[in-house]
Fold this sequence. Notes:
Blueprint: E1 11-17, H1 23-30, E2 35-41, H2 51-59, E3 64-65, H3 75-80, E4 86-90, E5 107-111, E6 119-120, H4 123-129, E7 134-141, E8 151-158, H5 165-188, E9 204-205, H6 221-230, E10 237-241, E11 244-255, E12 268-271, E13 275-284, E14 290-291, H7 292-298
Parallel strand pairs: 1-2, 1-4, 2-3, 4-5, 6-9
Antiparallel strand pairs: 5-7, 7-8, 10-11, 11-13, 12-13, 13-14
Helix pairs in contact: 1-2, 1-5, 4-6
Amino acid sequence: MTAERAGDDRARTIFLGTGGFGRASLRALHGHDAVRLVGIVSGPTRNRPSPVALVGSELGVDPILTPERLRGPGSIDAVLALEPDLLVLADYGQIVPAALLGLRHGALNLHPSLLPRHRGAIPIPAAILADDGETGVTLMRMDAGLDTGPIVAQERRTLAGSETAPQLEDALAKVAADLLDRTVGPWIRGELEAREQPADGATLSTRLRREDGRLDPHLPAAALERHVRALQPWPGSFVDTDLGRIVVWVARAELSRGAQPGAFDEHGLAVAGGERLALIEVQPAAGKRMSWEAFRRGRPGIVGTMVSPRP
């Protein structure tokens, strides 16, 4: 035992996180009496520090490691040199090496879905796209698989059916922080037992590509409305036209009196099944967000225009 450990029975803990989802959980962990936060591992610094690294600096956490690859040379040794008992991960973005999973208290991951549903990279957009009636946060003990580890605790949240991905992320970030605050102490004291994930109901969400943002007018309006809410802020939802690309920020599903799918009218875009994706807020290429009415007044030729086919 090092001199630094003597007389301190708190679990030496490292937080791994990059995106905004992890900020509230980092704050909860920093103030918890069962842990001693001895470091942060975050994504590599590009133009500016990650959201988690910024919060860590504000809280005075040192060190904040930002390896290009956590599995790269020296990265594992740098983490183990901090003598951690526990890792807590939220929205980190890299695979955690097996060498870091066997700590005294293991490695816990806060995943924003009700596992085993929506394993993988985009659980929040996936829940919206699937029109799920509820979602939540799972605290799981990590194993070598992709979000396959045993469940320590779950917290459910009913969906209203109107949430955007950023709104749902903010809500689930608070759920995650509260769940972590309530469970990390009992977990460290051995009062909680992880249970294997159910064998049924597993789904996998894969990383989004830019082209995934393209709206297909041959789909029902309700599916396209969910698409608009789910794929914010990236890659966004868009269509290409002779007047350039149009990004759709806010839309509503409604009837359109049987116009040809892919045609614009005064209210929006005709889609499959005699329906319309009513456009409420859009953004032209190289322009600012604006109401559909303002866009249409400035570009009257949009009415009657067809969506350009997929390249």
